[in-house]
Design brief:
2 domains, transport
Amino acid sequence: MGVSGYLAFGPKTKGNVLNNFPTDDWVVNVARLCFGLNMLTTYPLELYVVRAVVRDLLEIYHRREIPELSTAQHLLITTVLAGVPMLVALFTCNLGAILELVGATSASLLAFILPPLCFLKLTKMKPLREKIPLYMCIAFGLCVMVLSSTQTILSALHSTDDDHCVV
């Protein structure tokens, strides 16, 4: 989808390729509706999975099995997981900046930070000189994550044009 958007609109391609089209085009509005319905139906499934992961994290933190979340815990976790993305969506229309932030954090974590951390946790390496490359990789990943996130946030804050939004 990104390649076809770039081929059609060149360097003026917006983060959400549907924002490149006029608001009065009925075909594009049907596509926007379908995209919205897709998000509406898949988000609860993702929320269910994240809530289960939070329960597992609570089990690890409390060091005991939690068979089921209490009603208050369930409500709190669901409210936070649904409310935070909704607030972000209400205050931004630049999908590109959001995707850059997600990419900056998740790619750095998955490529540079978590693998050496897991290796350190799973192996019992004694000499510090054997651990130095692992710590360097973690530090590099943290630097990449912080720099790219900062760059994205600063460019979003200092952006004066609203060309990424549907007008």
